[in-house]
Amino acid sequence: MLEELRISQLGVIESSTLELGPGLTVITGETGAGKTMVVTALGLLLGGRADSGAVRSGAKQARVEGVVAASDLDGFRAAVEDAGGEVEDDQVVLARNVAAQGRSRAWVGGASVPVAALAEVAEPLVAVHGQSDQHRLLRSGAQRASLDRFGGEALAATASSYAALWAELVVTERTLADVVGSARERAREADQLRFGLGEVEAVDPRPGEDAELAAEETRLGFADTLRTAAETAREALSSEEGAPDALATTSAARQALQGVRDHDPAAGELADRLAELGHLLVDLAGDVASYAASLETDPARLAAVSERRAALTALTRKYGDTIDDVLAWAEDGAKRLLDLEDTDGQIAELESRRDRIRAELGELAATLSAQRQEAARRLGEAVSDELTSLAMPHATVTIAVTQQGTPAPATPAGPQLLVDGRWLRAGVHGVDDVEFLLAANTGADARPLHKGASGGELSRVMLALEVSLAETGSVPTFVFDEVDAGVGGKAAIEVGRRLAALARTSQVLVVTHLPQVAAYADRHVVVHKSSDGSVTTSGLVSLNDDDRERELSRMLAGVEDSDSARAHARELLEAAAPERACLPERPTRG
Where do transmembrane segments lie in this chain (predicted)? Predict the structure, then answer.
C-alpha cells in the first residue's frame, strides 16, 4: 500500500505531500488546478515515460517520492533487494527525478537504478485506469489482453506456452525459407569447396612442411659456401697439416698448469677445466667434420624442393598464410561441404519440425480458445452485474471469442493452424478474435462498444470492466482518473457506491469532478490553486467535515456558500456515510 506521495516542482505543484491510507481517497479541484498531476506523478513513480515539459517553469528538475508499506508484499521486498535497495522498518522509498534538461533518474530503497528497473519493481503495486484507457479498451488487442488477465493462472500458462512455441515456429519457418531460397547459392558454395578441397588433396601437404622445405632449399642453395665454412672451422679446431689449432693450444695450456698444480690447488682446477674443454673440442671437431661431409651439391634435389614449395605456395595464397592454416581450412571446408550437400536432408528435417510444432500449436490453440470462452462467459456476467449496480440494470455485456478460417483440408495460406478440423488464422496470441459487445437495453442487439454505447454508457461499462478486472488482480492499489466522465445523477451515485465497495478490500485513489462520487470517500483531498499574478501554484489539502461540505457544494453549484448547495452536500454525505469504511482522516500538507 502507498502510504505517502511527495511531489515537488511538477507542473503547477511546487511542493506537496499527500498522506494516504486504506480505503477510498478522492482528489477534487477546479479545472486546471492540477488534479491530474497526481496521476502524472504516480505514472513517473511507476517508471512511466518522463516529459521534461512537465517540470515546473523555472525549476531545474521535478521530483516524485513514494513511501510504500512492504510488510505484506514479499515479492516486492525481494524485488527491492534484487535491485540493490533496502527495506527499512517495513517501508521502501521509491523516487524519480525528471530534469528540465537532460535525463531522468530513479531510486529504489536508496539505490540508484535504471528507470526500467524502477518500473519492474513498482509495476505490481499500482494499477492506473484513466480516460485514455477507455479508448485503449476499444481496441481488439486490448480487449483480448483484458480477457486473458481475467482468465487467471491457467489461461496465462496456456497463453505463455503457446507464445513460446509460436516463436519457435517463426524461427523454424524462417530457417526453412532461407535454406530453400538459398539452394542456388549453397550449390555454388559447394562447388567452390569441392574445387578447393581437390587442390589441397592433390598436393597432400604435411603439417609444417612449408617451413621444413624452406630451410632445406636454403641449405641446398648455399651448399658450397656452407661446406667451405665448415672445413675452415674444422681446420681451426683440429688441423690435419700440423698447423696450430684449438686442440693443440688447449693441450699446451693444460700441460703448463698441470705442471704447477702441486704448488697451488687453483692451478690444478684450471688444468682440469682445460682437460674438459679439450674433450669438448674433440667432439665438436668431429661434429663439424661430419657436417662438412654431409654438405653435397644436389641440383636435382634442389629443383624438387623448389617445385614442391611452389605447389605449397599456391595453396597458401588461396587458403591460408601457412600450410597448417591450409589444413585447418580444409578440415572446416569438408564439414561445411557435408552440410551443404545435405540440403535436402535439412529441408526434410525442418519441414518435419515445422509440422510437429504446428500440430502442437493447434492443440494449444484449441485449449486456449476453450479457456477464453469460459473466461468470456464469467467476465461478461461480472461486468453485467456491475452495470446493474451502476444504474444500467437492463444492460448486458457479452464477450465474443471468434476465429477466422476455412474448412479442412484446405492448404494453409500464410500463418494458419489446423484446429479442430479447420485451418484458422493464427498469431502469437492464438487463433481468437476477442470483441466486447453491449446490449444497452432489453431486446436490443449486442453491438461493439464503440458502436453501441453513448459517452455516459461507455464510461460506466469501462468502470464496470475495470472493477471486474481489478478484483481478479493482485495489485494492492487502484487509481481511477476521471473514469466517471460523462456520468451524472443517479448513475454517479452508483459509481461512488461501487468504488467505495472496492475500497473495502483495496486502496483506491480517484480523481473526480463528481460530488456524488466524492461523497463516498474515506478521505477527501482538494487541489487548491493560487496565483500571484505571474506564477500559478497548486497544493494538496486534506479536508475536514466542514471543509468537505463546502467543497461538495462548490462542485454541485459552483459556489461554496449557497445554502441550498450546502444542504444538498450534507444530504450526499449522510447518504454515503453507511457505505464508507469510516477510516480516520489523515492530514495532507501542501
Answer: none
